Amino acid sequence: NAQIAEALATLAGIVARDHQPCREDEARMERFMRHKPPTFTGGYNPDGAVKVVG
Question: What is the pTM of this model?
Answer without folding.
Answer: 0.37
